[in-house]
Amino acid sequence: MAVDVTKLFWRIADSIFLLLFAFSVVVQLNDPDPIPWVLIYGAAAVACALTLAGRQRWLFPVLVGIIALMWAATIAPRVVGQVPFMDMFAEFEMKDIGVEESREMYGLLLIGGWMALLGHRTFWSSRNSFRDS
Question: pTM for the whole thing?
Fold first, then answer.
């Protein structure tokens, strides 16, 4: 029985992102404003879980991704060109508000990028399965 390497790769990647987003939900519980962050990271984790279960519809990850990217765009003017990229990794705790917002923006960009990939893959796999039936 041949192993579909591409499917295996995407299952592993989806599993890794599911764990990363779920971990992010837990970390956000310590945030001063946890609700919006728990919701966005939780929605991204749910999208990964639905994909792994084969029950994903393309619209859900696309909407989560759009929300994350729009949110990141509201933070970007305070981060881009203001906070050196490597400052995010200098210390674990919040160094200053700029570093905190930088981490938030890049987290949202990560969600947006992965949700775009999930939406793209789900859209085309559903079209291919519809055409094959």
Answer: 0.86
User: Could you tell me where the beta strands, DSSP code E, fall in 18-73?
Assistant: none
The DSSP letter of residue 89 is G
Nearest to 14 by CA among 123, 119, 126, 129: 119
- Hey, where are the domains in the chain? 5-126
Residue 121 to residue 127: CA distance in whole angstroms: 10
Q: Are 88 and 103 in contact (CB under 8 A)?
A: yes
Q: What is the sign, positive or negative, of the torsion defined by CA atoms of 123, 49, 106, 13? A: negative
Percentages helix, strand, coil for the chain, rounded to the nearest 5?
A: 80, 0, 20
- What is the number of residues in the chain? 133
* CB contact set of 60 (below 8 Å; sequence gap of 6+): 46, 47, 50
For residue 76, give the amino acid letter.
A
Q: What is the pLDDT of residues 12-59, one digit of tens each?
A: 999 999 999 999 999 999 888 899 999 999 999 999 999 999 888 889
Residue 69, Cα to own-chain centre: how many angstroms? 10
